[in-house]
UniProtKB/TrEMBL annotation:
<dbReference type="InterPro" id="IPR014027">
    <property type="entry name" value="UDP-Glc/GDP-Man_DH_C"/>
</dbReference>
<dbReference type="Pfam" id="PF03721">
    <property type="entry name" value="UDPG_MGDP_dh_N"/>
</dbReference>
<dbReference type="GO" id="GO:0016628">
    <property type="term" value="F:oxidoreductase activity, acting on the CH-CH group of donors, NAD or NADP as acceptor"/>
</dbReference>
<dbReference type="GO" id="GO:0051287">
    <property type="term" value="F:NAD binding"/>
</dbReference>
<dbReference type="InterPro" id="IPR001732">
    <property type="entry name" value="UDP-Glc/GDP-Man_DH_N"/>
</dbReference>
<dbReference type="InterPro" id="IPR036220">
    <property type="entry name" value="UDP-Glc/GDP-Man_DH_C_sf"/>
</dbReference>
<dbReference type="InterPro" id="IPR036291">
    <property type="entry name" value="NAD(P)-bd_dom_sf"/>
</dbReference>
<dbReference type="InterPro" id="IPR014026">
    <property type="entry name" value="UDP-Glc/GDP-Man_DH_dimer"/>
</dbReference>
<dbReference type="Pfam" id="PF00984">
    <property type="entry name" value="UDPG_MGDP_dh"/>
</dbReference>
<dbReference type="GO" id="GO:0000271">
    <property type="term" value="P:polysaccharide biosynthetic process"/>
</dbReference>
<comment type="similarity">
    <text>Belongs to the UDP-glucose/GDP-mannose dehydrogenase family.</text>
</comment>
<protein>
    <recommendedName>
        <fullName>UDP-N-acetyl-D-mannosamine dehydrogenase</fullName>
        <ecNumber>1.1.1.336</ecNumber>
    </recommendedName>
</protein>
<dbReference type="Pfam" id="PF03720">
    <property type="entry name" value="UDPG_MGDP_dh_C"/>
</dbReference>
<feature type="domain" description="UDP-glucose/GDP-mannose dehydrogenase C-terminal">
    <location>
        <begin position="343"/>
        <end position="439"/>
    </location>
</feature>
<dbReference type="InterPro" id="IPR028359">
    <property type="entry name" value="UDP_ManNAc/GlcNAc_DH"/>
</dbReference>
<dbReference type="GO" id="GO:0089714">
    <property type="term" value="F:UDP-N-acetyl-D-mannosamine dehydrogenase activity"/>
</dbReference>
<dbReference type="InterPro" id="IPR017476">
    <property type="entry name" value="UDP-Glc/GDP-Man"/>
</dbReference>
Length: 460
């Protein structure tokens, strides 16, 4: 691709000329991070602009993208789109982030922003990308932050960092936060239009450029909020709302035995009122969004946030509650957890996704082990060594019935579990973490709904 640099920040072209330049590939785009979300985003940018360089520190990822291959699994349409865009030269990849930064007029950042064990946002990868961008920044460039960051990151970290390291005045480049509001498994449809796109710049020109760019990317509405901090907060509030709401559902599930009702039935009925939208209870909240983002806020404010922290506590307590409920149910069935062999079904945090970050299965396995149980675990999405790293003995789904189980805990209901032949087991006690089991002919306690089939007892 020839160097046809056209920066959009402070551009003197009329808006339609800017849009045309973007569509013509005259505004080179660099996307930093080609992971589960970065690769779909880079591919959509490539389809829209015809001129994208993707940067990743993983040489295998870079090689695959350059070969037109897709390393992200279970993302409908993505392999075809990557092959098509790489094939026509619209999507290239490199590990050389500084060279890519020199090429780019729009810099899109979508690298991991995890949480440390001390509940602090870890911005190391993010800052490494900023350093590369600073080394290649030019007046007129636009920096778009898509990965989730704590409030004020764009205005108080990105802008001063880039200004200091590049020597270019903050009045000559733009910065906007434009959150990724995408779910794994539906990335392309989400990026191109499932939800309105939120954009918020550090100044009005940044907001204008971000709105113009995403007007080309999405078929949905672009909502320009007042500033970058507002946009950063929007993304965090979405996760926070779900965390607090799930905590409410989980607390209701915990009082279910006192009430003696099926709490999930009550929730469903309550939700028929339009202002009520209580989420589903479960064995805990996992992944790298909902359990982490509350701390992105609490770590950055001085005001007390008791509700946010209590919601975290309630959700973090659910794996232990799940294991303790099994102990109680075993005891009701006249058995002791210390001598029980228990299969944990599902180690990933979500069905159908090979992702274990912050998975509640870890806490369930730990607590069962503390109680003295022998813990096996099954996960069709994961290799045995990954399952074993959680402290359980890995077992394949095909071999499950060969084990003399006393109990099972469904933490994450992968669709493969629909094929389990429950009749092959004798006298099981089962905890149904997500309410997905029908009548399986064993004693089952569903989180929220409570016990059923309590009369099922075969032999001692
Ligand atoms: N996965 C989701 O469902 C989701 C949804 C919404 C938002 N997000 C946001 O997007 C971010 C990225 O998520 P993901 O699922 O794509 O992560 P991921 O772990 O799948 O991919 C991250 C990629 O970034 C690369 N990388 C790491 N450091 C780098 C660096 N310094 N320079 C260039 N590349 C680097 C990694 O090699 C990897 O390929 C998350 O941290 C989150 O803030 C993710």
């Amino acid at each position: 691709m020839t160097n046809q640099y056209t920066g959009l920040y402070n551009s003197e072209l009329p808006p339609e000329g800017q849009r045309q330049a973007l569509r013509d590939g005259a505004v080179p785009v660099t996307v930093y991070g080609l992971g589960k979300m970065g690769l779909p985003l880079a591919a959509v940018y490539a389809k829209t602009t015809g001129n994208v360089v993707g940067v990743d520190i993983d040489a295998d990822v870079v090689r695959m993208v350059n070969d037109g291959e897709c390393h992200v699994a279970k993302e409908p349409g993505l392999p075809e789109l990557v092959a098509e865009q790489a094939g026509r030269g619209a999507l290239r990849a490199t590990t050389d982030s500084v060279a890519a930064a020199k090429e780019g007029a729009i810099h899109v950042i979508i690298v991991p922003t995890p949480l440390t064990d001390d509940h602090e946002p870890d911005l190391a990868a993010f800052v490494a990308v900023l350093d590369s961008i600073a080394a290649g920044l030019a007046p007129g460039d636009m920096v778009v932050v898509e990965c989730t960051v704590p409030p004020k990151t764009s205005s108080e970290l990105v802008v001063p960092h880039l200004e200091a390291k590049s020597g270019i005045s903050r009045t000559e480049f733009g910065v906007a936060f434009c959150p990724e509001r995408t779910s794994s498994g539906r990335a392309l449809q989400d990026i191109t239009g499932s939800h309105p796109k939120i954009v918020g710049g550090v100044d009005t020109e940044s907001t204008r450029v971000a709105s113009l760019v995403y007007g080309e990317i999405t078929s949905n509405e672009v909502i320009a909020v007042s500033d970058a901090t507002t946009a950063e907060s929007v993304k965090l509030f979405e996760g926070l709302y779900r965390d607090v709401n799930i905590a409410l559902a989980n607390e209701l599930a915990r009082i279910r035995d006192d009430l003696g009702i099926d709490v999930t039935e009550a929730i469903h009925a309550a939700n028929t009122q339009p202002y009520c939208d209580i989420h589903a209870p479960g064995p805990g909240v996992g992944g790298h969004c909902i359990p982490w983002y509350p701390y992105f806020i609490t770590s950055r404010v001085t005001t007390d946030t008791p509700l946010i922290l209590t919601a975290r506590e309630v959700n973090d307590s659910m794996p232990a509650f799940t294991a303790d409920t099994l102990r109680t149910e075993l005891s009701h069935a006249g058995r002791d957890i210390e001598t029980a062999t228990v299969a944990v079904l599902g180690v990933t945090y979500r069905p159908g996704v090979a992702e274990t970050r912050a998975t509640p299965a870890a806490g369930v396995i730990d607590r069962l082990t503390e109680h003295g149980a022998t813990v096996l675990a099954v996960d069709p999405m994961l290799d045995d060594d990954v399952v074993a790293s959680f402290g359980a003995t890995p077992v394949s789904l095909a071999d499950l019935s060969a084990h003399d189980l006393d109990a099972a805990v469904v933490v994450t209901p992968h669709e493969e579990f629909d094929d389990i032949d429950w009749a092959a087991f004798d006298d099981l006690v089962v905890i149904d973490g997500r309410g997905t089991l029908g009548d399986i002919g064993h004693r089952v306690y569903t989180i929220g709904a409570g016990p059923r089939n309590t009369e099922v007892r075969h032999h001692d």
